[in-house]
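queue> holo job accepted (CGF)
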Amino acid sequence: MTNTTIAPEDLQKSILQHLEKSLGKDTQNATLYDWRTSLSLALRDLVVDPWFRSTRKTYEAAGKRVYYLSMEFLIGRLLEDVAINLGAEDASRKALADLGLEYDKVVRDEPDAALGNGGLGRLAACFLDSLSTLGIPAYGYGIRYEHGLFEQHFEDGRQIEVAEGWLAQRHTWEFERPEVTYRIGFGGHVNGNWEPAETVIANAYDTPILGWKGRWANTLRLWSAKPTVLFDLGSFNRGDLVGAVVPEALARAISRVLYPDDTTEAGKELRLKQEYFFTSASLQDIVRRFGSEGYDIDTLADHVAIQLNDTHPAIAGPELIRLLADDHGVEMARAIEIARDCLAYTNHTLLPEALERWDLGLFARTLPRHLQIIETIEADHLSRTGSHVRIIEDHSVKMGELAFVMAHCVNGVSALHSELVKKTVFADLNRDYPGRIINQTNGVTPRRWLYNCNAPLRELINRTIGESWVDDLDQLKKLETHVSDAGFLEDFMAAKQANKKRLANWLGEQVGQTVDPAAMFDIQIKRIHEYKRQFMNILETIAHWNEIRDNPNGDWTPRLKIFGGKAAPGYFVAKEIIHLINDVSRVINTDPVTRDRLKVIYPPNYNVSMAEVLIPAADLSEQISTAGKEASGTGNMKFALNGALTIGTLDGANVEIRERVGEENFFLFGLTAEEVVNRRTQHDFSRTAIANSPHLARVLNQIADGLFSAGDPGRYHGLVTLLYEHDYFLVTCDFDDYHATQNKVDTAFVDRRRWSEMAALNTARSGWFSSDRTIEGYAKDIWNTPSLLDKSGS
Ligand SMILES: [N-]=[N+]=N[C@]1([C@H](N)O)O[C@H](CO)[C@@H](O)[C@H](O)[C@H]1O
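queue> job finished
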């Protein structure tokens, strides 16, 4: 199956055809939306054939399919991705140019599909791209939220949330499947059989996920909640309009909006309903498809590999058992075995507040039959292992323990994290089920995160080692032999400079800020969370500002600090940190003494598309979490791949990045995970650290005195006190080392030759962090699902 390239003129014909016939518009009256939609439909037409062929080949192979269950798929935009995977980017540019249109402008008109919070959701999207590129038959299953992650706006430097509206326009890439519907029950009671009190309909929407070179396409099936009764005419006729529309509104609420919490459980009834809604619809769909192929239900695990993306779909264990036992008459003990052989679970965090525990009362009210089944699962677990670990405890249902016990394999997402999972959250279960916990270090798709977003570097790499790296990222190693070549290094830095100029223009357009592309672009972009320590970053920025002001004639390396990231709406401290960063930025950026040497910018509404403009332009990647807290990180991988140097702690995948790119090409600082645990036991460790750090003490006094909050001096007393009294994430203890390391970065940046060598080696040695490698690991160690593409890729 070859790459589906198309001639520009043929593509243009198809675009005009869709403009007229699909959108009913002529060229005179066409809007940017019309052109973008016409191009998308024209390219989508080219995706259907490989999609059908892949589905047909999957049925013929009668092999095993992967089912990736995730509450989040942080997809971003799809137009550029599809154009590149079809090998039709140049044709699209030409076809539009001949119509007097700019491809980049048309691409930017597409809203992000922001159906996720952060790393976990983006990982799921990268995994879908790799599953298709590797030709592994798979389905992604999730929820078609009407409103994805909220839009972030700043008012007086404070985060304001506005509902996101990606579906306000037609979403071109999906196909509605009116015939694919399932009934999802809630509440009620179990009287032999489960009689739900409430039922909603799950309706499927399919999006084809095309892989590199258009050789294979899998399906992302997202569920939308619909009422069993569209409009209650009886109530309406009785004059009760509200009563007439309530059923629809209540049902629709289930897929209405994404909960905006990253690494914190929502714990709300609607969230539990969302988790059960999509999990049940997905499992009913899997069992129906399996049944339609005529296999014996007892062999389900030979044909089905289900991966649970964190505990959000952990109800899958009891639900699959319910379908097998209650609907297919499989004996309970056998049903438990079959379900376990199908299920595997990925843990993404150690943070206690992220481990889902549902109130027993709420659970019993919402899913009475499943609670019965969980009691059976727990009894089976206790009797088979003699374990003392309970699933139901302290009046709650522990979803981590449920997912673990019901999975034949549990994995962490970086080498350090998987070891910590064994030693901490699941230490007892690790003893009960030795060997069940393995590691699969995260990865990112090189298509979106290098080939798509970094054309200057892509071109240089293609010129230097050919194009096979795109689906075999280890090939980047071949660049190492060129690192000693001055010409190559010059081209490498020229690519970086081009991306920095592009970002400078973007910042001018988007936030009205002018920046110096020669400055060091130092970027921290990720969700705002205390463990990610944006707080420490801005404190160090103030210390650096002080140093420049103390010695304005010093030979300071100009630095642009960029922050990006959203805080969960209910996360007060994180929102305070955002406010502080914006307040500090206002003061520093207007300081005549320092403004040419230091600038702080915080563009609002960080998302996937913004990351694609920021990451290629970065010189320095901030990965400064408290060691032992960031399970992996994936932004860290994207930055290294795009030739940024990392300043970071020995946390998550930073450890493996440093091992692979070479410790001499990584700016390490901070306490290790073990030292963090020990330091916390020391009395008054934060006061001691502050007392021993004049830089930090000075900065905290400046903040407490209201230097950055003129007219509201007490604004940050809470934040400062937090550091003195409850510095759980050891900002105070790592501050000096971080500050000293930032000074080393300044010195290193001046030596352009050395810096460019280090940067090029980061790119050359980042092959391991491809999500293709990660998926190959899952396929081999967990799913046993070979590629259906033969070696020649056909
Ligand atoms: N939930 N969750 N976990 C995370 C991220 N916040 O989404 O998953 C990501 C994907 O595994 C990790 O990279 C990251 O360290 C971890 O915190």
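queue> The chain has two domains: 63-78+113-440, 446-672+735-776.
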